[in-house]
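Entry type: protein chain
Record version: 2
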Amino acid sequence: MYVVTIPNQTTHPAILLRESFREDGRVKNRTLANLSDWKPEKIEALRAALRGEKLVRTDDIEVRRSLPHGHVAAVLGTARRIGLDTLLDGPERHRDLALAMIVQRLIDPSAKLATARALDEDTAANSLGATLGLGEVHVNELYAALDWLGMAQPSIEDALARRHLHDGTLVLYDVSSSYVEGRCCPLARLGHTRDHRSDRMQIVYGLLCAPDGCPVAIEVFEGNTGDPTTLRTQVVKLKERFGLKRVVMVGDRGMITQARLDEDLKPAGLDWITALKAPQIQRLAAGPLQLSLFDERDLAEIVSPDFPDERLVVCKNHALAEERERKRNDLLDATERDLKKIQQRIASQRRPLRGADKIGVAVGKVINRRKVGKHFDLTIADDQLTFERNHAAIAKEGALDGFYVLRTSVPAEALDSADTVRAYKSLARVERAFRCLKAIDLEIRPLYHWASPRVRAHVFLCMLAYYVEWHMRQLLAPILFDDHDRAAAEASRASPVATAQTSPAAKSKAATKRTDDGQPVHSFRSLLADLATIARNVVQFAKADEITLVTRPTKIQQRALDLLDVKI
């Protein structure tokens, strides 16, 4: 028997149940029933039954559990593909929990208690615990795994250094800070805050990166530690632990000071690339630095007896010069308006401001707010305030707008002027790492750990999560807003000193919000959210055993998985 559809010209087609049989050696057909009034799903069920398929009632199908899975597969698959799991060499339970915390930090950064609940099989927020076979997870186990990870930090960093650093390479180094909740952590101190949280104590941490920005090692210091003070630890790490005989340390002008050069880098035999501070540039302008050379050029090398055996690379960014002039004028205008308000208070007939000391306090608050007091000549009396701009000081400072001077010990035959500028500007990659660590992705702050080893382990855990993210971003760049054609962008750049350019491909993505194949462009975080809609479903049919079904990826999800070389 079979079901056949007979088309009609004027009415709906007829649905007939027919039987085929043989009579006198000939095949014949006869109609058994007219099914035209049946519902389509009933007809399809009859067709399936006639084909011999096993039918299951819809009320016998039960989805026992559905967990977000795609983002887990993407992050965990990348961590395994880059060999991060092989670096976690230790007890199996600690190793699996440490890997789970790294992946979970990238998927959904949260406190250790929330992480434990997300990984536990009964309260799982995603499929990570089931994929790793973690079973029941207690928060104390996570703390034990975190402590083990902290003790394993030296060996893991050594392995990363062997992968990404070698003799003669550039090493990027910079520091940042994050605030700490509570007052019981021995590392927490009041110091210069980069989070604009002067009401909280903080820790300082220094990040070492390879030339391409890949993180290699991180070190935690007390919150009141000055940036230059952290450099000695990194020199020891590079020379003694990593066994590197000759590298080029790249750091900003507040990091690699003359004292650090004399006491740390030169005795260790390391080269460096850094920049001069403003007073040093002003002294050069009175001697070997001729500003007129840069009317038509933006890059030149000079020599100075103040910096023997060093190369000085002078750069002028004309766009930066215009921006600094505009900003300085805005600050001067705003300060003048505030000073005029103080004059009005002095001249007021109702509760006038009197006394040179009180007027001085009010003026000090205004001057210190915008740091432009050196550009004003002030006269303060008991009942009077006069001021005017110091145009000579403003002109002197303005003459150096847009100028910066790099100093390096690397010979010109090893690194020319343009490459020296590019190397120094690559410090922006460390700044990008700090943005991911602190804000948009990994949320390293605030810290709630009190014991110093756990604070260090938590910071190291976040660095390993960024290590995975860095590799993912390199692979996913074609479908992210990131510029995936850096070579074209650099080729369109007139000079390494000029403002960085965006490649035509990245401009097209930003304008159309579409990739080259017409799919939506994502940020890294929104792509993970999209991948999370690929679910891992545990389904039971009637009284049969449970089976696991995974949602079929969409086109953009499949492309992301293909770029990561991850199979679902």
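Comment: The first helix runs from residue 40 to 50.
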